[in-house]
Amino acid sequence: MNKLPELQRREFLRRASAVGIAGTAAPWALSLAGIGEAAAATTPGDYKALVCLFMYGGNDYGNTLVPYDATNHAAYAGIRQALTIPRDALAATALPAGTDGRQMALAPQLGKLKGLWDAGKLAVQLNVGTLVQPTTLAQYKARSVPLPPKLFSHNDQQSVWQASSPEGATSGWGGRLGDLFMGGNGTSTFTCINVSGNAVYMAGKQAVQYQVSTSGAVPINGITKSLYGSAACSTALRSLITADRAHWMEAELTRVVKRSADAQATLSTALAGVPAFGTTFETTSLSTQLQMVAKLIAARQALGATRQVYFVSIGGFDLHDLLATQHPLLMTQVNDAMASFYAATVELGVADQVTTFTASDFGRTLTSNGDGSDHGWGSHHFVMGGAVKGGRYYGALPSVSVNGPDDVGQGRLLPTTSVDQLAATLATWMGVSATDLPMVLPQIGNYSQKDLGYF
After folding, report:
1. How much is the pTM?
2. How many CB atoms lie within 10 A of CB 142?
3. Which of 16, 21, 24, 283 is the most exposed place for a label (fewest CB within 10 A)?
4. Model confidence over 17-52: pLDDT tens digits?
């Protein structure tokens, strides 16, 4: 028997599953691999969700977590020049001093996150970034160990953060988490949900990201309402695009369309049953994305979900200029959106079952280019949730210096914690076994510490 058509079909499915179609056709980015819908086999109430908040452009770590003790703030000001946040502006967001006497403060706009820190619901992961294996400064300079490909490149480092591979990767670690959990969800389609478009982070080997808008499921135009004012036309279109086909590619497309239409109907019905929140969300894009995540979590039982991975994002962080004026605005949006989302999880009674973490292409230079900062490497990130052992730092606090022991030049931090370690910690909390971790994170075997202790 000639197996070429089947091999072609498998390759088509493999490639198509890696990329969701954006825009009005977004629901077509559904599971092309023909995943069977499995009944959930977990106990009632056994639910967990992981939410990735990606800051596109490379967040400036120097003005997110700021040296506050007098000595280190003076060193910071000498390096940052016009980008410096005055010390008196940091008093309200100052964090407790460490045993070494060093003290840090959150950006002044992160007051609500400071409240979550104080409540033990927010932690800071220090100097985390893309690595292949633990790397010292001497090894970096000698190029004696493998390094992440195409360092300081936006597209590639976004992909390495999300997928452990440069641009062109076909699956990300969020999607690979979905691969392990989708069989335990009543409807596998709703395992990986993206509220911000498309991201390789959410593509699995089998799981495919289901894309929604901030208003909910995106319908296939023409079949969910009258077409050209005619219900008959709408019915005819539905029949045309869902009719059985003989050719394998046409048959696959038909199956995707049917699945998309069914998912849209299921999700719309589930969301219609979600009552209004008492929590107030802001009208920014990031807040409305997280509000939709909260609604989807509220609808988890109607969707048959026990494990879910979500993705939201905010752009504008590539601040080579105007950093002093634009970065505070972005911090305000992150502060408000994360705080409102956490409050919504409390309202829903699932705060201990939802963990949110921030990510970004890379950090930026501690040095100023005059009006902004340039592409860097390591950065500081937040982990938030009711299960998080918050109110503390994880990892090593870098020195406030240029060309010092912690950076590769211009205050570009050499990461002391890898994205793989952060991801492994989150995956373990989700329920991934040590045996299955390499399926999610192929390079995790390079690290002796695989759980950073957030939970």
Report:
1. 0.89
2. 9
3. 283
4. 443 333 333 333 333 333 333 333 345 569 999 999
